[in-house]
Design a protein that fits this description.
The chain is of the alpha+beta class. About 30% of the residues lie in helices and about 25% in strands.
């Protein structure tokens, strides 16, 4: 079913403020995948990933995964002295997720805070990955869970983050920035071990994101999928 601008009309949203879907109404696709989404040939983000076409338009993500939340993890000001005077730049770290199996993260630099934040949000949307979740803790009871299926390690710079399955109700036992990334990904229970320079906000968040990427690169048998109640991406 093709996208119909009238289907996105929401009186309550217009009363509260700017229309969050205004960009979709004015969207003119520039890629083959974008045209397929606009024409209704692709109706889910999972289908877009399976199509093999690169996702290069933010509107594709907005159309297929509505309700994405963003979290600006850090904004750092960088000053450099040049021959013409002091030059100021801003370094923004942003994470985006739907709270149900998808997460993206990005770092952008720019001259102005607002435009750099928006640039980082858009870049994070284009880097969305599905997250593998499951019930991998031996302490858990039978049934699906919102932890991870097995231990996994991610690295960024000198920071190394190891995520371990936790039983339901344990919560996110990890540093603040890792907790915010995992929450956006839809993971609610996990243990964490960290090593290296963990004070770096960017490296800590990236290492957590890279650990989630490593989950997707692990081959899992059908038996493990059933036993650990593994799901990838959104829970249907």
């Amino acid at each position: 079913m093709a996208l119909n601008p009238e289907e996105f009309t929401d009186e309550s949203n217009r009363r509260r403020g700017p229309d969050p879907l205004a960009s979709l109404r004015n969207w003119t696709p520039r890629t083959r995948l974008g045209n397929m989404v606009m024409n209704g040939e692709i109706i889910s983000y999972e289908q877009a990933l399976e199509s093999g076409f690169p996702i290069r338009e933010v509107e594709i993500v907005d159309a297929l995964i509505p309700g994405l939340e963003d979290d600006v993890l850090s904004v750092n000001m960088i000053q450099r002295m040049t021959d013409s005077g002091r030059r100021v730049r801003f370094n923004v770290l942003c994470a985006v997720g739907n709270g149900d199996g998808y997460i993206g993260i990005s770092v952008c630099k720019g001259k102005e805070v607002a435009s750099t934040i928006q640039k980082a949000i858009n870049k994070a949307k284009l880097s969305l990955i599905p997250v593998m979740r499951g019930n991998g803790s031996w302490e858990s009871s039978e049934g699906p869970g919102n932890s991870i299926p097995f231990k996994v390690t991610g690295r960024s710079g000198s920071t190394r983050i190891t995520l371990l399955p936790a039983p339901s109700g344990k919560g996110l036992v990890i540093g603040d920035y890792g907790r915010r990334v995992l929450k956006l990904a839809g993971i609610t229970d996990v243990w964490c071990r960290s090593a290296g320079q963990t004070r770096s906000t960017i490296n800590f968040a990236r290492a957590t994101y890279n650990a989630l990427q490593q989950l997707n690169q692990t081959k899992v048998s059908e038996e493990d999928i059933s036993r650990l109640h593994i799901t990838k991406g959104r829970k249907i």
